[in-house]
Design goal:
This protein is an alpha/beta fold. It has seven helices and six strands, in the order E-H-H-E-H-E-H-H-H-E-H-E-E. The radius of gyration is 16 Å and the shape is globular. This is Histidine phosphatase family protein.
Length: about 220
């Protein structure tokens, strides 16, 4: 699944939303609708100025507030309208949602360990990572297919959803997706299109190294 048609030189920028209070608390947000902090808004504003220099052709975003507000900053700079799609939401994680990292390990230790080993796990009774990719990757590819040659699409989403989408577009085995690592708030990854499909050009770019807080949200 690579969405290419002979290598049209397109780019996909997958941009994680800005900071939320639950990121700071390392609290799993999942599909819950948590807003940006003031710091998160400032992060989005700064990153938007950088991303605008890429002259994006289109912007799509998760409809959750933290992603929509982040995308709005890029819209304000570029004048591009944002298309919101629920398919780009973060992983639904059932009983894990709202819990801190420590609480998840305490209450769901075996499930957490299995997930970290790369086993298919319905965290908290929620979605499998492959199911997240099943809904998110087609949204990204459909929008990318509408780009002009050499065009750039910005996708504003969430850490877990971005990782699974990258894994799917690169054709990686699901058990290896965790090896991609996390994205810091308001950092991004870039996929470029070549003759053999999509390839990872940048990962967790946009700033000096920062701690990754609450990546799966």
């Amino acid at each position: 699944m690579n969405g290419t048609h002979g290598g049209r030189g397109r780019r996909i920028v997958l941009w994680r939303h800005g900071q939320t209070a639950w990121n700071i608390e390392r609290r799993f947000q999942g599909s819950l609708d948590i807003e940006l902090t003031d710091t998160g808004v400032a992060q989005a504003r700064r990153a938007a100025r950088l991303l605008a220099a890429l002259k994006p052709d289109a912007v799509i975003a998760s409809d959750l507030k933290r992603a929509a507000a982040t995308a709005a900053e890029l819209s304000a700079v570029t004048g591009l309208s944002v298309t919101h799609d629920a398919g780009l939401r973060e992983t639904y994680a059932g009983a894990w949602q709202g819990l801190t990292h420590e609480e998840i390990i305490e209450s769901f230790g075996e499930q957490y360990a299995a997930w970290k080993r790369g086993e298919p796990v319905r965290r908290g009774g929620g979605e499998l990572e492959t199911e997240v990719a099943d809904r998110a990757a087609p949204v990204v590819l459909e929008s990318a297919d509408k780009l002009p040659d050499e065009g750039t699409l910005v996708v504003v989403s969430h850490g877990g959803t971005i990782r699974t989408t990258i894994g799917r577009l690169l054709g990686l085995e699901p058990r290896t997706w965790e090896a991609l690592g996390g994205l810091s708030n308001c950092c991004w990854s870039v996929l470029g299109e070549g003759a053999r499909g999509w390839r990872l050009l940048e990962h967790n770019a946009g700033s000096l190294p920062e701690p990754v807080l609450g990546d799966d949200d």
